Every structure is written in structure tokens, then in C-alpha cells.
Amino acid sequence: MQNKLTFWIATSVPVALLLVILATISWPEWLEAILLSRKAFFSALLNGLSVAGLYFIVAAGFSLIFGLMRNVNLAHGAMYLFGAYVGYEIVGVTGSWVLAAIGATLCVGALGIILQLFVFRHIEKDEIRQTLVSIGLAILLGDLMMGIWGGQTYQIPVPELFKGAVKLPIVTAVRSSGDIVQLSYPIYRLAIIGMAIVIGFGLYGLLNRTRIGVMVRAGVDDRMMLMACGVNVEIVFVAIFALGAGLAGLAGLIGGAALSVSPGEDLRYLLASLVVVIVGGMGSIGGAAIGAVLVGLTEQLGLVYFPAYSAVITFLIMVVTLMVRPQGLMGGRQ
Fold first, then answer.
1. At 46, phi and psi to the nearest 5?
2. Among positive and negative, which fits the CA dihedral 195, 201, 204, 209?
3. For residues 160 and 16, what is the distance between their CA atoms, to the nearest angstrom?
4. Residues of the chain falling short of pLDDT 70
5. Three-class SS of residue 124?
6. Could you tell me the pTM of the whole model?
7. Three-state secondary-structure class, residue 183
8. What are the b/e assignments for 275-293, b being 16+ CB within 10 Å?
9. Are 69 and 283 in contact (CB under 8 A)?
């Protein structure tokens, strides 16, 4: 696993250097013609990274539940949407985005605990039943949210700290007077990238550098042996399910402020999570990050350069990955 991560880090370094060069040098006419413009290219690139950050936060929770616990929870997208609605209500009442983040995470985490204790615990290692039950739960939760919040589109306010835009050291044009025009980009979208990085390192440390992470991995591989060591596996699994659901709720608030909150978003982020986890590898936080970046960049660059085939290209990446490496880019052989 470490060798795979090192390979992807080493691969990303020359790509990052190439992007730095493209951001600072003057483009020849043929390159401008191919990529439309510097502004279009770098805006799409940054949009892809910010969407990738959001996909990663959602998919990281899905990866914990699906990849580590082997629970097929297709209600994960509904948890995302529920977190968005809860966050919207808390922001409306308190005006505090921080309280909304805490509230959305805790409420959806509590929902995850309820589902694990009363539903998924009784159908463990039965993927078909888990799939059918979780689809039913997704439909039920979706109808309940539709009944409460209706079919309107809501917008969660962006935190005051992250309002506005910032000029980046990316030259988009040079005026006849010699003045340099730099790319302006929303601060909040850059903050999403930062939050995804912090959450990613936090989850990696939790699963690979703590006793809890060791117990989780051991419980997945040999549950009876872990129980024989005196560990309450049920509590460990409930905690992980709550963490995965809570991340979906937090992502709902973050995504609702960046984009919008409306019925149908649950299906979009469920599909995104599935693609990210399949491409990256089940149970791998590093794989979820790589998968999210590939999916996010493909989606946003595709919308600019191949708008009619953007979704097709995204799923083509998944198909090719399954053909070449069925366990995912960072997944281990079972």
C-alpha cells in the first residue's frame, strides 16, 4: 500500500510542475486554440479540485462503511441530503455555520447509529439483503425529506470568513498597457479543498496510527479473534458507521453552501461515491482521494471541453479500472 501511495505522489509531482509552468509562461496560439483560454482551463481545473474535495468527503464516509465494514449502504446519498437540510435549518436559526457543521455531523451520525443497531447489524455478510434494504431506506428517507422540505432548491449561506474571491498567481491575460490580469477564484471553493485535505489526513491517521484503526481492520479480517481478545466489536462497528454517516452529513452542509440543496442530490452523490470507491479501492482513504481527484477533474474538464460526453468519460474511467485492476487503484487483493 505504501509503495502504491509513493508511486501516485511521485506521479503527481511532474504534473504539478507542468501546471505551474503553464500558469506562469505565455501560451502559444496553438495551445490557446486547443484549451480555449488560460482562464477556462485553470477555472475548470480548480473547479475539478474543489468538486473532488467534496466527493472525497462523501466517499470517505462511504468507503469506511462499504470498504471496511462490508456494509452495502446505498442510503449514503440520502444521508448527504439529510445533512444538507439539517445544516440549512441550523444556519437559518442560529446564523452560525460552525454550529450547523457540528449539528449536521451529529444528527446524521446519530441516524447512522440507529441504522447500524436496528438494521444493518441483523443482515451482516448478506450483500443482497443489504442492497435491497438500503435502497428501500433511501427511498423512504427521500420521501420523508420531500414531505418536510418540499421540492424547492435551497442555498446554504457561505461562512463570512470564506466569502468573496481571491486573486491567484495564475496569469490569464496581459493587457496592451502591460498590466497582468490574474485569475480570481472563490475563497470558499479553495476552503473545500483545504477541508478535504485536513479530513483526509485525519482519517488516515485514525485508521493507520491509532488503536481504533487497528481494531477496525482486525474486526473486518477476523471478527471472532478480535472478540476473543476482549474487544467489543459491536461498539467499534457502530462508531465507524456513525463516523461514515457523519462525514456524509458534513459533506451535505459543505456542498449545500458551494452548490445547492434540492431533491435528487442524494442520487448524484451516491453515484459519485460508488465510482470514487470503485476506482480508488475499497477501504482505502488514499484510494478515495485519488479516485475523487480523477472523477472531479474528469467531470469538470469534460464539462468545458466535452460537454456532451462528460458523464460518459467519468464512467469510462470506472469501467477501465474494473477491467485492468478490479480491486481499485489502491485496493489490495482479497
1. -70, -40
2. negative
3. 31
4. 1-5, 7-9, 67-68, 174, 176, 178, 217, 219-223, 331-334
5. coil
6. 0.91
7. strand
8. bbbbbbbbbbbbbbbbbbb
9. no
Cα 37 to Cα 21: distance, rounded to the nearest angstrom:
15
Angle at 115 between CA 258 and CA 74, to 5 degrees: 55
Please work out, in degrees rounded to the nearest 5, the angle formed at the alpha carbon of residue 252 by the alpha carbons of 247 and 258. 125
What local confidence, expressed as pLDDT, does residue 7 receive? 67
Positive or negative torsion for Cα 139, 141, 144, 149:
negative
pLDDT tens string 177-191: 767 778 889 999 999
- DSSP character string of 254-281: HHHHHS-B-TTHHHHHHHHHHHHHHHH-
What is d(CA 59, CA 255) in angstroms, rounded to the nearest whole number?
A: 13
Please give the pLDDT value at position 4: 63
* Closest alpha carbon to 277 in 290, 264, 268, 296: 290
**pLDDT the model gives residue 13:** 78
Q: How far is CA 303 from CA 26, 45, 128, 193, 291, in A?
A: 25, 11, 35, 20, 18
CA-closest candidate to residue 270, choices 244, 302, 248:
248
What are the tens digits of pLDDT across the range 248-281? 999 999 999 988 899 989 998 999 888 998 898 8
Identity of residue 201: F
Sign of CA dihedral 18, 23, 26, 29: positive
Pull the grid cell for residue 146.
420531500
